[in-house]
Specification:
The strands form two sheets. The chain has a six-stranded parallel sheet with strand order 2-3-4-5-6-7. It has a three-stranded parallel sheet with strand order 8-1-9. It has 13 helices and nine strands. With about 350 residues, it is of the alpha/beta class. Helix 1 packs across helix 8, helix 4 runs parallel beside helix 5 and helix 5 packs parallel to helix 7. The chain binds iron/sulfur cluster. The site of iron/sulfur cluster has 9 residues, from loops.
């Protein structure tokens, strides 16, 4: 197989356009080999707490965008978030991901208190934040309060495409700045993008890969675009599982030690989507820990799965899926291999 790390933008785009062509199977085998080398058969879990679906932004693809007046809004208070963590800890999660829209209610002071309370109550757990674009000062304060990881999908590394997916006040340069700030502060950084989003070309995906090579993030979330009916992109077609698998495998080969989640979105496209992506090089799953009564309200896209199950059901469902695929779900913080921290359990 040709070396993806030596390919030009045009060659990468051509490889993507042909879906890997005759080299696809070899690519997937190589991706698996590299994952085994870095992480063995371990699959790491993150307990996802979707704590607010308010957002001040209007990304054209997102079901909780500000102008979607059909979205039923909610926020969890600090005590509810801590209850989710407590349940998660009992279920064996050692990473909590606090995810939300860009909700101005959650000021730095409020978030600092939440992060600090989790850090104090669960010293052996990693705290990941996914709260969108903030100032460098804000990222620093949350890091100092005890957060160690931050997920901020870049969505597309092509400036023209970025403007096709976002309103004019949202800028690719600012998204880029945020990711570099997070890296410099010391977070384990997660970037990521949608596969098959409107107006995306193979060249855009090649730009994503080249940008990620430059950023060297610790984690990359890759999921198919799935339309949400109340958004400007509600009538566009979804991305495909086949192309998502290709991108996961290409990324594993280009960044061998990166953490790659099998996202809920691939499970929405295909009942066995997560298993298929795990077999192509992914090694992280993110079951939902949010209270069941708010799950359906965090609808970034239509037909999202796992919105009706209790946290314990999600935990054991995902364990079964991982084990049937030949891997092991671990009780571990699941740090990037270059950033391992050891804690006595
Ligand atoms: S993608 Fe994020 S920033 Fe954009 S509207 Fe949705 S929640 Fe807000």
């Amino acid at each position: 197989m040709r070396d993806l790390n030596r390919m030009t933008r045009e060659e990468l785009a051509d490889f993507i356009r042909k879906n890997g062509g005759t080299e696809r199977q070899e690519l997937i085998e190589e991706s698996n080999r590299l994952r085994l080398l870095s992480y063995g058969r371990d699959v790491y879990t993150r307990g996802l707490i979707e704590f607010t679906n308010y957002c001040k932004n209007n990304c054209y693809y997102c079901g909780i965008r500000k102008d979607n007046h059909n979205a039923e809004r909610y926020r969890l208070i600090q005590e509810q978030i801590l209850e989710c963590c407590q349940l998660g800890w009992q279920l064996g999660y050692r990473t909590f991901v606090l995810q939300g829209g860009e909700d101005p209610y959650f000021t730095d002071d409020r978030l600092e208190r939440i992060v600090h309370s989790i850090r104090t109550a669960f010293p052996d757990c990693a705290i990941t934040l996914s709260l969108g674009e903030r100032s460098r000062e804000s990222y620093q304060r949350l890091y100092d309060a005890g957060a160690e990881r931050y997920l901020l999908r870049h969505e597309t590394a092509n400036d023209i495409h970025y403007r096709q997916l976002h309103p004019k006040e949202m800028l690719w340069d600012n998204r880029r700045r945020c990711l570099w700030d997070l890296r410099e502060i010391g977070y384990q950084v997660g970037a990521g993008f949608m596969v098959g989003s409107p107006f995306q070309t193979p060249e855009c995906l090649a730009d994503d890969l080249l940008f990620l090579k430059e950023l060297q993030p610790h984690m990359v979330g890759i999921g198919p675009f799935i339309p949400q009916k109340d958004t400007p992109f509600g009538s566009y077609s979804a991305g495909t599982l086949e192309q998502t698998i290709l991108m996961v495998a290409m990324l594993r080969v280009m960044l061998p030690a990166v953490l790659l989640p099998a996202t809920t979105a691939v499970g929405t496209l295909d009942p066995l989507g997560r298993e298929k992506v795990l077999k192509a090089g992914a090694n992280v799953v993110m079951p939902n820990l949010s209270p069941v009564d708010v799950r359906k309200k965090y609808l970034l896209y239509d037909n999202k799965i796992c919105t009706g199950d209790e946290a314990a059901e999600c935990r054991f469902c995902i364990q079964g899926r991982v084990e049937r695929t030949g891997y092991t779900l671990t009780v571990d913080r699941g740090d990037h291999k270059d950033r391992r921290v050891s804690y006595a359990n």
